[in-house]
Design a protein that fits this description.
Porin, disordered N terminus, mainly beta, two-stranded antiparallel ribbon, 16-stranded antiparallel beta barrel, single chain
Length: 451
Amino acid sequence: MLTKTLLSSAAVIMAVAGANAADLPSKKAAPATYVKICDAYGAGFFYIPGTDTCVKLGGYVRAEYQYTPGKDTISASTGAMQQSNQLQSTTGYETRGRIDVDARTPTAMGAARTFIRLRGANTSGVRNETITDKAAYGMSDSATTGLTIESAMVQWAGFTFGVAPENYALMPSFMYNANPFAGFPAGMKQIAYTATFGGGVSATIALEDRKDFGYDQTAFDRVETAANIVGNVRFDQAWGFAAVHAMVGNNSLNDTVTNGAVGTTTFGSYAVGATVSYKLPMIAAGDQVWIGANYTKGMIGSLLSAGGLSNIGTSNDRRLLGGVVRADTNVVQTGGVVGTSATYDSTTGWNLNAVFTHYWAAQWRSNFSAGYVSISPPTSTVASTWGAGKLWEVSGGVIYSPVKDMDIGLEVQYANLKNTMQNPAAAFVTAGSPGLNVNNFTTKLRVERSF
């Protein structure tokens, strides 16, 4: 009997204790929250916790080492040497890092996308220098650090707002050195709309900021709100793509400054071109060729990035060819006197270029390029005015990828420029018209790791 009583009492105590324990705060850890993969937009996306927005992070780190032999620079007025090649840096260095953030949220009219691409770089040597950087008997160079917004855009329902890739230039920028065609590594401020019609056909129309184009008029240009109308039609297929592209705009001069009248004179400008790319698996997996051609009146930026033929473009960062360093403009004075009776006309030009990528093996590939650019300023009676400039270039490189998304590459580029001058100064002629025909090469070693 005593045993039964004790057991019953223990049972009651245990039941009461269990009931009281249930009322106490639990010490059990909250379940962990794990990153959830988002495969709706491709590999690498994940959900921001607590939202239906998917985000992808990426970027790269790049180290570049450049060698470019110095070239004498010549005055177009006197024929005298402005700077000896011995006073120019021949090496240059650049280290850059890029961060990409791609965020997408589903809507009834497709994904609402926000994309940011920021690039920071530290450069020195030939990567910084211009002709005016150095005194006659010395050199001036310092490491320069800068931040560039390559992209900062919102895309939704076919529209693009912000800084995004330019819609006219469709050739790839695979070359380490300068391209013999237009490129816009800093992006383009724009409002654009792309329509997709099915069967691989799409069309884009855009308003793009004129100030982001190379060769913008520096003396008598339009206000900064000026825009170009840009469009392209693409046909994308399994074999590659074909596209036609065009843009129109204006170059305006202040009549009060140029010929003493009140008002402005506007010159219509345009560019047209075509780009074709074709995959070549019959040669090797991954092989592909791109071919482009363009013609312009008053829009040299459709042929080359800013910087002049002597630099080919800003992607080369400063001087390459030397000689008589050109300063081409979209509108050229053809006669008269500035301030009273000056007359003007537009510069014309065209180019033809090709890029070929070949895979020697899974980890080894090469890029080859060849291009020709011709710029023809209008006939002028003004002394020491630029005549035609004709440039051709070839380049080739070899790239080793020991692991996915890592490249170690070496590239060499050769360029040849033939210039003419209209009404050159007597001193320039007496000096033997030096610096009109120049050539040079440049080479770069690049190590890059993407993620």
